Amino acid sequence: MSVVVEFALPAESFPFGRSTSGDPSVRVQLERLVPLNKSRIPFLWATGEDLEQFERHLRESEVVKRVEAVTRVGNSVLYQTEWDTDKETFLNGISDQDGAIMEGHSNSEWSFTVRFPNHAALTGFHQFYQAHDYPVRIDRVYSPGEASRREYGFGLTPEQRDTLMMAVEDGYFSVPRGTTLSEIADEVGVTKQAASERVRRGTETVLRKALIGLIADDFEPADEA
């Protein structure tokens, strides 16, 4: 039976992370399901007010062979990338165990959701990152059958949905605001930082699903860099 693992590690601790961390203000997210045995992270979204520094850093990375900006939506750009798989050692460790990246996003660290074909493959990945001293933090391990318990509309986790609903109902998005992150955090029983993460990531998930998922018939190629 396949198994899903959610984990994170600092962006600077592995080649792919370093190549995508040229601008800390830019948020990077992988495009949908990425099967590593077919193509190594072919598409990624970058979102920020100014992507020049990020794109320059990406192009100059030793693990990147080619970068092309293919779609622009507001302040988000979809990049098609070709990687030097011999140098991207961490992703090799996932690929060697037949892992499929289901989701991935970054700020100061990269967070991944990866599906392995069985527990033996997950054990192999565990042995790999320990042997190479990658500072992986495992956040959750579960079987795909449990996914229905964490998925609500738009792919929100239960925690994100509850916090986001409270923010909407209490007027956090109103003008003027009817509540603060501190008040939301107190009601939910988490820290202000945790509440902020849930609201921010939940909002981005909903907007991406609702907006970016609808651009197939109305896509605007990005300007050449």
Automatic annotation (TrEMBL):
UniProt-listed Pfam families: BAT, HTH_10
Domain HTH bat-type: 156-207
InterPro entries: BAT_GAF/HTH-assoc, HTH_bacterioopsin, RNA_pol_sigma_r3/r4-like
Signal peptide: none
Organism: Halogeometricum luteum
UniProt cross-references to SUPFAM superfamilies, sorted A to Z: Sigma3 and sigma4 domains of RNA polymerase sigma factors
Keywords: Transcription, Transcription regulation
Name the UniProt record assigns to this protein: Helix-turn-helix domain-containing protein
Residues of the Bacterioopsin transcriptional activator GAF and HTH associated domain: 3-122
